Each structure stands twice: as C-alpha cells, then as structure tokens.
Amino acid sequence: MTSSAVTSSQPSRPPRPNLAFRQLRGRRSPAEFAAAVRRAAREIGEQVSCDARYIGRVESGEIRCPNYAYERVFLHMFPGRTLTDLGFTPRSSVRGRGARGTADTPPTRDLSPARTPGETCAGFEPYDPQYPYDPHIDHEESDVLRRAFMTGGSATVAAASLGPIGLAPEATAVERPVRRVGASAASALEDAVRRIRLLDDRHGADGLYRRAAAPLRAAYALLDAGATRQATAHRLHSGAGELAISVGWLAHDSGRFDDARSHYAEALATARMAGDCALEAHAFCNTAFLARDAGRPREAVRAAQAAQRIARPLGSPRLMSLLALREAGGWAGLADRTGCEQALTRAQALFERGPSDADPEWMSFYGEAELAGLEAQCWSALGDWQRAARHAGRAARLQDPHFTRNIALYTAELADDLARGGRPDEAAVAGLRVLELLDQVQSSRVQRMLAGTARVLLPHRRATGVSAFLDRHAGAARTA
C-alpha cells in the first residue's frame, strides 16, 4: 500500500514570474484572457472558475503548475505546446512526488495524515488536483461568488432574512447599514442555519432553495462588514460557511448540481480563510457526496479522503464514520468492491464507538438509519440488489419520523432495489408509500429515483400492485 499523502505545493523560494504565459496573453487584459479561458473550457466540457486574479497568480509564478482541469484547457487553447512551453513547472517537482500513474489510475486507499505536527488546516491543501476542484479556489472563485451573494457595493443587510420568520422569498424590506456586527448577529446567523436544516429534514429541498438566497446574501454581508471581536468574527465565518453548505445541499438535493458545487466551493474558501478545520471537513464531506451523485466517483474518493485527513484531529468518531461512508460511495461508483468494503468496515467500526462531545451539530441526521441508507446506496451502485434492499428497508424502519424527506429517500431506494432485483410486487408497495409522502416532501432526488423505478417496472405491469403504482406515479408526474 503506497502513501497518498499530499505535500504542500508552496515553494520555499520566491516565485519566478511566468514570462512565457504572459507573452501568450498578448495585448488582452487579464480579465479578457480569463474570459477566453472560460470559453475554451466550455468547448471541451471542463468547468474552471478562471478570473483576472487567477491569471495574475499564474503570471507572477505563484501557481507553478495548474491542476488537471486547467491543464486540459490550456493545452486546448494552445495546441502542440506542453505545460513547459507555457512556462509551468513539471507536476512531479511541484507536488514533491515521483511520477504518477495515468489519469485513469484509481487513487490509492492510504489515508496517512498529510500534515506535519502543528500545521494548521488553513494552509493545508489535501484535495488532489487531479480532479476538477481547483486547490486555489479559495481566492479565485471566492471573490466571484462573494460578489454574486452581495446585494450591492455598500454593506447592507436584509435583517429580516435572518430573523425568526426567516425564509421570506424576498426579505429585503428591512434593510439597515452595517458597520461592525456583534454576537447577536452571529446568533441570528446560526439560527438561520438550524432553521433551514429543520425545514429540509421535514419538507425537502425544492421549495426552499430559492428562498434561502436572502439569508445567504445577508450572511456574507455580515462577514464583509466585520465584527467587533475576534470570537464573533470566527462565529460569523463558521456560520456563513455552514449556511453556504446548507444552501448548497438544497441545490444538490433539488438537482442543481452546478449551483451546489459553487456553494460548497464558497464554504471551502471561507473555511480556509478562517482556518476552520471543522468547516473545511464539512465542505469536503458534501463535495464528496455531490461528486458521487454527479458521476465523478474518483473526485468523490479524493474529497472524502481529504475530509478524513482534516477531521482526524477533531476527535469525532461519528464524523470519521460518515466520511468513510462518503469514501465508500466513491469506491462503489468506481466498481471497486474491495475499496468499498474496506471503507464500509471502517465506517461501521467508527460508528460503534458512539457519539461524543466533539460531534458537529450539523451531524444530527447521522444515526443508524443514515448509516444503513448510505450503505444501501453503495451496494446498489455495485449491483448487489438483495443486500441493497435489505439495508434500505432497515434505514426506512429506523428513521426518526420527523425526518420525512429521509424516510421518502430510503423508501425510494428500497423500491428501486427491489425492482432491479426482480421483486416487482414488493417494489410497487414501496413505491406507493413514497408517493404518499410526496405531499409533504419536495425533493427532486426522490422524484428522479421514483421515475427510474417506474421505468424498470414497466415490463412488469401485470405483477400484483405494479399497475396501480405506475398509474398513480404517472398521475403525480402530470400534476407536478
């Protein structure tokens, strides 16, 4: 087993300007050149958050070698040239590693800590740049997103958007200038995060996502205004990052993957700027989940491994258990049964250590039901329908009744596993239970799963109960 520890990419000597890259920019401004990079990325199906600051960092030599997404874009823009021709340093020397395998080589499973003793998470870049997320995103994308979340150039806050009524669609009626903010504003922000999570647990994401934009803008307005005390500033950073993750989850669950990716990136940037390891681990946790759902299993594995390296010193076995499950989901997506089983074994062993005072507040959803539900998804991805159905059924039975969305999700997973496992009559029964819950739950993810189950059951219309399920599902789809 080889180590996958990632060493820092920061050089010990002053950066050397990249004159070759500057020459390629020519007479275009950094902003114009960044726009050309983004256009080139779209041409080849890549996603990069390039702006003028990124171009400046490349030309100054601060970015000695781009990540793989940027590499593909630059080589597309300048065919026939190598990274060295573009003024970059060979990747192996930048990362402090020997030659890597090809991009198709699965990542190793070693989770050796990549930090030296005393190193803070703020200066740590555990996320392997082989995957589309840019390790320098804390600067480039953060500024772009920050401007999008702000209501204007001056520091104004929609105060009502963080109040107890909270999630009004356009909470801009009560605006006041913000100079320096205190502990009461940080408490309001934390309450907004809890409220959004509670509503999501009960009703799902679809109806909440747009309404959560105002609290998010308010959060970053507060953060931009600054705080009267350092402790309050830390709470504001943490609260804004957690709110970005919550809003990202609402986008994720409602099928807006690009929006979710941006919100998670903003949370990651906020965590790194504040040196908040717990927030950074949470951001990587959700990034891994999103990558799995978006069909990027290698990225899911790397993000989950990064989260585990960051979270290990936090002392929460339950958090480490959940992160191991995120990794297992990535291995399952890669059809790596051995890797998946090893991660699942770790997740179960860590879970059995029980809760602790170090468990993050946001993990209140993670109990036996979620453990079983995530394991069901792994077996489903591996095509082991019988085992997947067993775990999904257990998850639905164990779930706390107030987590209505999760009950619908686990039952939808059960219906799909039963259908694909050749048990159409049982699948129809489970599918009908989900349809009954959709009056209370608005989740595009659940609806997509149910639509897939309906397609699988179409050839089995004559089986007991299947026709009734298909007819009711079709009616619900027309109504929606």
Task: Itemize the secondary structure elements and their pairings.
Blueprint lengths: L18 H7 L4 H14 L8 H9 L7 H10 L13 H5 L44 H10 L6 E3 L16 E3 L5 H21 L9 H13 L4 H24 L3 H18 L2 H17 L3 H15 L5 H17 L3 H15 L16 H14 L3 H14 L5 H17 L3 H14 L6 H14 L8 H14 L1
Antiparallel strand pairs: 1-2
Helix pairs in contact: 2-3, 2-4, 6-10, 7-9, 8-9, 9-10, 9-11, 10-11, 11-12, 11-13, 12-13, 13-14, 13-15, 15-16, 15-17, 16-17, 17-18, 17-19, 18-19, 18-20, 19-20
Question: Can you characterise this structure?
Answer:
This protein has 20 helices and 2 strands. Residues 1-12, 95-120 and 122-178 have low confidence and may be disordered. It is mainly α and 480 residues long. The longest helix has 24 residues, at 230-253. Among the domains are: 8-96; 137-275, no CATH class. Strands 1-2 form a two-stranded antiparallel ribbon. The protein starts with 18 loop residues before the first helix and ends with a helix.
